């Protein structure tokens, strides 16, 4: 198979879809890899490393899309890439379709085959290609929250861990999954007073067992959320429903209950966000303020630490990329139930229920396209 690795062109996205190590594996399996010039530089990989691994460097993104059977990316194609997608071309990347109707419409129109990292799902309901970036984003959410609590950045002027004789900041984490667990670890390690909320009592019991003494667990419901908002300094939205829009846990009217300088970090923003007032921002302009509350809603948080993120991501994606390259997408998805759940849009048909529901589009069972 011919695999193309274009340079990411989303704002401040420095990750790359395949590392030189990944190229080596693909070439060793008999595949041809084309990498756009400077695609890996943001992650610390120069063109010479890709060439040494067996890739061919192409100067433009148009040439990469034009020659490849499968495009391996990190983020969804942006508007300037839509017309580069060929009929029946396979794209393997993060899509987050349910929060982006124009992208969904474009991929349907282009007759593409869209395999989404975020909906590849194991039998135990874990999401192996989302986990590494969720780990990065959860840890970064606390770093960024701590920074924006500083007064020059319009925060409350509170040090997350406090100092002897002064109380630490209070951190509220909505969601006890991978993002929430990693956020709690970092916040607790910095000395904050942490509360993590979830609707799954079994998950709360588990978290209560493994977390240090400065992490409390609480059942997530609207009453409990409203009770805690006035007393917490940093609130992290870490809720995910695979392939569907995130539920709204903090509404516009709740902002009035928060103290000026409270910081909201919505890690779920690329799935529509779990905070009503959040809208996607960029690393270039990461925050905005509503009712004196600081909102940090960067949709590609791991893109700020690309050296770590790219390696963590490709460690997880490469076995699946190889499976698809070796067998073709149809056979690979027919043989592997995890990959099959990654199919979202196939040749003009929406084959993932959460995406169809988000935009009231016709739904085709994935078995009909295999």
UniProtKB/TrEMBL annotation:
<dbReference type="GO" id="GO:0042853">
    <property type="term" value="P:L-alanine catabolic process"/>
</dbReference>
<feature type="binding site">
    <location>
        <position position="134"/>
    </location>
    <ligand>
        <name>NAD(+)</name>
    </ligand>
</feature>
<dbReference type="GO" id="GO:0005886">
    <property type="term" value="C:plasma membrane"/>
</dbReference>
<dbReference type="InterPro" id="IPR008143">
    <property type="entry name" value="Ala_DH/PNT_CS2"/>
</dbReference>
<feature type="binding site">
    <location>
        <position position="220"/>
    </location>
    <ligand>
        <name>NAD(+)</name>
    </ligand>
</feature>
<feature type="domain" description="Alanine dehydrogenase/pyridine nucleotide transhydrogenase N-terminal">
    <location>
        <begin position="4"/>
        <end position="137"/>
    </location>
</feature>
<comment type="similarity">
    <text>Belongs to the AlaDH/PNT family.</text>
</comment>
<keyword id="KW-0547">Nucleotide-binding</keyword>
<protein>
    <recommendedName>
        <fullName>Alanine dehydrogenase</fullName>
        <ecNumber>1.4.1.1</ecNumber>
    </recommendedName>
</protein>
<feature type="binding site">
    <location>
        <begin position="267"/>
        <end position="270"/>
    </location>
    <ligand>
        <name>NAD(+)</name>
    </ligand>
</feature>
<feature type="active site" description="Proton donor/acceptor">
    <location>
        <position position="96"/>
    </location>
</feature>
<dbReference type="Pfam" id="PF01262">
    <property type="entry name" value="AlaDh_PNT_C"/>
</dbReference>
<feature type="domain" description="Alanine dehydrogenase/pyridine nucleotide transhydrogenase NAD(H)-binding">
    <location>
        <begin position="149"/>
        <end position="297"/>
    </location>
</feature>
<feature type="binding site">
    <location>
        <position position="198"/>
    </location>
    <ligand>
        <name>NAD(+)</name>
    </ligand>
</feature>
<dbReference type="InterPro" id="IPR007698">
    <property type="entry name" value="AlaDH/PNT_NAD(H)-bd"/>
</dbReference>
<dbReference type="InterPro" id="IPR008142">
    <property type="entry name" value="AlaDH/PNT_CS1"/>
</dbReference>
<feature type="binding site">
    <location>
        <position position="203"/>
    </location>
    <ligand>
        <name>NAD(+)</name>
    </ligand>
</feature>
<dbReference type="InterPro" id="IPR036291">
    <property type="entry name" value="NAD(P)-bd_dom_sf"/>
</dbReference>
<dbReference type="InterPro" id="IPR008141">
    <property type="entry name" value="Ala_DH"/>
</dbReference>
<keyword id="KW-0520">NAD</keyword>
<dbReference type="GO" id="GO:0000286">
    <property type="term" value="F:alanine dehydrogenase activity"/>
</dbReference>
<feature type="binding site">
    <location>
        <begin position="239"/>
        <end position="240"/>
    </location>
    <ligand>
        <name>NAD(+)</name>
    </ligand>
</feature>
<feature type="binding site">
    <location>
        <begin position="298"/>
        <end position="301"/>
    </location>
    <ligand>
        <name>NAD(+)</name>
    </ligand>
</feature>
<keyword id="KW-0560">Oxidoreductase</keyword>
<feature type="active site" description="Proton donor/acceptor">
    <location>
        <position position="270"/>
    </location>
</feature>
<feature type="binding site">
    <location>
        <position position="75"/>
    </location>
    <ligand>
        <name>substrate</name>
    </ligand>
</feature>
<dbReference type="Pfam" id="PF05222">
    <property type="entry name" value="AlaDh_PNT_N"/>
</dbReference>
<dbReference type="GO" id="GO:0000166">
    <property type="term" value="F:nucleotide binding"/>
</dbReference>
<dbReference type="InterPro" id="IPR007886">
    <property type="entry name" value="AlaDH/PNT_N"/>
</dbReference>
<feature type="binding site">
    <location>
        <position position="15"/>
    </location>
    <ligand>
        <name>substrate</name>
    </ligand>
</feature>
């Amino acid at each position: 198979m011919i695999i193309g690795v274009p340079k990411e062109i989303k704002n401040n996205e420095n990750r790359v879809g395949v590392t030189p190590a990944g190229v080596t594996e693909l070439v060793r399996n008999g595949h041809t890899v084309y990498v756009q010039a400077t695609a890996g530089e943001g992650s610390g990989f120069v063109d010479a490393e890709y060439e040494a691994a067996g890739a061919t460097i192409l100067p433009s993104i148009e040439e990469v899309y034009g020659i490849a059977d499968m495009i391996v990316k990190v983020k969804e194609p942006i508007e300037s890439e839509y017309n580069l997608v060929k009929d029946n071309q396979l794209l393997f990347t993060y899509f987050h379709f349910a929060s982006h109707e124009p992208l969904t419409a474009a991929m349907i129109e282009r007759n593409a085959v869209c395999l989404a990292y975020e909906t590849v799902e194991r039998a135990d309901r874990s999401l192996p290609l989302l986990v590494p970036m969720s780990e990065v984003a959860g840890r970064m959410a606390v770093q960024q929250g701590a920074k924006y609590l500083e007064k020059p950045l319009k925060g409350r002027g509170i040090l997350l861990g406090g100092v002897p004789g002064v109380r630490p900041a209070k951190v509220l984490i909505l969601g006890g999954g991978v993002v929430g667990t990693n956020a709690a670890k970092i916040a607790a390690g910095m000395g904050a007073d942490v509360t993590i909320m979830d609707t799954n009592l079994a998950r709360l019991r588990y978290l209560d067992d493994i977390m240090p003494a400065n992490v409390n667990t609480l059942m997530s419901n609207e009453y409990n959320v409203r009770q805690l908002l006035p007393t917490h300094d940093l609130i992290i939205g870490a809720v995910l429903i695979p392939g569907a829009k995130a539920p709204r846990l903090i509404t516009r009217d709740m902002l009035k209950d928060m103290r000026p300088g409270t910081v909201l970090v919505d890690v779920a923003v690329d799935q529509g966000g779990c905070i009503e007032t959040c809208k996607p921002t960029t690393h270039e302009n990461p925050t905005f303020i509503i009712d004196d509350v600081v909102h940090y809603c960067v949709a590609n948080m791991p893109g700020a630490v690309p050296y770590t993120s790219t390696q963590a991501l490709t460690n997880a994606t490469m076995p699946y990329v190889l499976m698809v390259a070796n067998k073709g997408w149809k056979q690979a998805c027919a043989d592997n139930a995890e990959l099959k759940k990654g199919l979202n849009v196939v040749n003009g048909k929406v084959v993932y229920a959460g995406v169809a529901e988000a935009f009231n589009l016709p739904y085709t069972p994935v078995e009909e396209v295999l």
